[in-house]
Amino acid sequence: MRLGSFTAFAPALADTPGGYEPGHFAKLYQLEASHFWFRARNGLIQWALRRHFPNARSLCEIGCGTGFVLSGLQEAAPQLRLAASEIFAEGLPFAQSRVPGARLFQMDARSIPFEDEFDVIGAFDVIEHVEEDTDVLCQMHRALKPGGGLLLTVPQHPWLWSAADEVAHHVRRYTASDLRQKVLDAGFRIARVTSFVSLLLPLMLLSRRARPGKNPDPYDELRIGPVSNALLSAVMTVERALIRMGVSFPAGGSLLLAARRPER
Predict the structure, then answer these.
(1) I need a surface site. Which of 57, 106, 133, 200 has the fewest CB within 10 A?
(2) Is the CATH number of domain 2-260 3.40.50.720?
């Protein structure tokens, strides 16, 4: 089925609220490119792709949102044939505007209609929105070519749970051991796990505790002055350099995981 110019594999879910608020896409589209956290995460994902899967020729991003990560991947690895999915069709035009050459489609990650298709699959702050995260990981395993790579980022530490997670429609925050086990159970071999947003973890904890518990502004964390944004960006640049040097942080606001589907 088609939804506008996009193939829809799960059209009944295309505008169904649940794991996300589709109306957030327009605001994110305006704010992501200048915000330190989105820029720092992009830099880390791009490094992880080059480090762990340098020979990849195709990549599919699950839950691409506005296409900000996808556009960064295109810039970092122009040889990639890019595909991306989003369960909420409202996000796809934003992604198309950023990466017009990518193959974009509406899809439920719990039912991926591909097998042995991609060299790399990525899901960046996506699976925490899905009750059936283990099903999603198994579907990703099936859609990867043998020897293909998996890249994930997720929010970490259940003790960091706050009203911000509820506004974001998170189902969970992960522990490193929980994420590792779920990825192993899905049939992957893990190459690297590290926390990030580690040097800023005390500030993040204070910020979460200071925010109101009822009816929080969903964009509050995205509104930050230019000086603070520049300083926080500099801290994240130092952190990324340490990760590139081999440091795996034991704690942080988020987790990065790279894994591989074994060869047959």
Answers:
(1) 57
(2) no
Contact at 8 Å (CB) between 195 and 251? yes
**Partner residues linked to 106 by β-bridges:** 8, 86
Q: Which amino acid is at 3?
A: L
- Break the chain into its structural domains and give their ranges: 2-260
User: What is the chain's Cα-based Rg?
Assistant: 17
Q: Which of 70, 100, 101 is nearest to 85 (CA)?
A: 70
In the structure encoding, which two tokens stand for residue 86, read together?
């989003």
- CB burial of 172-185 (b: ≥16 within 10 Å; e: otherwise) equals bbbebebbbebbee
Q: Six-digit token pair at 196? A: 């990030």
3-state helix, strand and coil shares in percent for the chain, rounded to the nearest 5: 45, 20, 35
Alpha helices per DSSP H over the chain: 24-31, 36-52, 68-76, 92-98, 133-143, 163-167, 176-185, 201-210, 226-244
The secondary structure of residue 156, as a DSSP letter, is: B
Q: Give the position of tokens 């691409």.
A: 64
Question: What's the pTM value of the predicted model, to 2 decimals?
Answer: 0.94
Distances (CA, A) of 32 to 42, 72, 107, 143, 169: 10, 12, 23, 29, 19
* Alpha-carbon gap, residue 175 to 161, rounded angstroms: 12
**pLDDT tens digits along 111-139:** 999 999 999 999 999 999 999 999 999 99
Which of 19-28, 99-108, 210-219 shows the lowest mean pLDDT across its residues?
Answer: 210-219
Residue 21 φ/ψ, nearest 5 degrees: -100, 105
CA distance 109 to 140: 8
Q: Which two tokens stand for residue 143?
A: 């859609």
